[in-house]
Amino acid sequence: MNAGSDEEAIEELADIVELIHSLGGIHVSTFDEIEKVRLEKAKNRGRFEKKIYLVEVCDEL
What we know:
Layout (H helix, E strand, L loop, with lengths): L5 H21 L4 H15 L16
């Protein structure tokens, strides 16, 4: 994260949450439905607590 302070980071996170709400509306979903899916994925696949994430996937035929 490139925020200069926790306050700046929270402002950016609030923008991300607003984007999620907006995209959920476009796809006829509520934030609660999205959260339910997020929790299920976290249970099955793990979370990002170690800040490890997938950068690229290569499908070889």
